[in-house]
Amino acid sequence: MNKDLTTGKPSTVLWRFCLPLFGSIIFQQLYxxxxxFVAGKFIGNNALASVGNSYEITLIFIAFxxxxxxxxxxxxxxxxxxxxxxxxxxxVYTAVIASGVLCAALMLFGGLFCEQLLLLINTPDILLxxxxxxxxxxxxSLPFVFYYNAATGIxxxxxxxxxxFLFLACSSIANIAMDILFVAVFKMGVxxxxxxxxxxxxxxxxxxxxxxxxxxxxxxxxxxxxxxxWPMLKxxxxxxxxxxxQQSFVSVGNIIIQGIINGFGPAVIAGSSAxxxxxxxxxxxxxxxxxxxxxxxAQNLGAQKxxxxxxxxxxxxxxxxxxxxxxxxxxxxxxxxxVYLFLDSPVGDAIQTGTLFLQIVSPFYLIIxxxxxxxxxxxxxxxxxxxxxxxxxxxTLRVLxxxxxxxxxxGSAGIWMAWPSGWLIATVLSLLFYKTTIHKKxxxx
Length: 445
What we know:
By secondary structure, the chain is an all-alpha fold. The chain contains 14 helices and no strands. The mean pLDDT is about 85.
């Protein structure tokens, strides 16, 4: 059901909209973590390391899908808030066509260069074959990744966060079951993990797109709807391209860091893979809540209800801190047990690596969450340059410190220390941009 985010008490409206988004991303992360869990438990630590090693490269492709999602979602939100329904449908059709072209280009790139990327990040010989196999199958699922992201972005733009939640809940449960079936029963190894993910993503994508177009048919418009518009594509691209660049910067930075991690051997790769999956669950959850702030901001910008935007930011900050605090305590004090869920042995370098990562990084979730909420508002009002600058500062500092500190006697622990350092700088920048750019643009006191 479509939901107008421009009426009602901002905090109540935002919380009701964002909580299903949070539930959706938890299932999305369970979906992703199932691969690592099954690989580590039913195949072995080298399989876990292979999946984790490949995961950093898949993030390059996800960056494009996510950026396209943001571009479409923000513009559709603005048009929905302004009640420009004819233009809204044109924006959706244009985004769908553009996504298909971009996806085809990325599949070609991946088919040609994935092995070279794996070699570039110093993938150990013992992991290379399984890492490439996982990536080859993942590339086949890329159209599903793109169109599922597009569908969820459109639902969110229309104020509907519940429908994506239901799709993801069912898909994630099915993915876990199929992972175990293909690996534990059919003995398909790393390929079984990849095929299970592809099948579940495909089913979710097809259903999501079906419901998107059914929802669009219910929105009444007059006259012929243009199925593609260059001006609309440009409008979407103005938001999407900086988002893609931001995500790509992060992905490339993560690949560089993965190359540094790979120099410490399979045990450290396995332990960090498990911990990074857990870390990504938190960061992706917060980012998704930031996307909810973006939709809320964009709808109210379209409706010219500027005072609600600042109220939405404060409500989003309270919500995200409420969610982060128990996760910080869980990761810091029980991180060892969480990492063990992915490993086939409770002792050794892998478990020590993952535990140390979580203890160093988790206390800073409360800081990075403030940045991601501010970024959500910046995206919603179209201040993309400032959004990219703060992210690039975080990434640059994190990569440099990871390279420098890992070469000292503290070894791999130096890589994990680079995370909070980058977050601190980026958070300060994002909050300054929020205070100056947003308050000036929206005439807030």
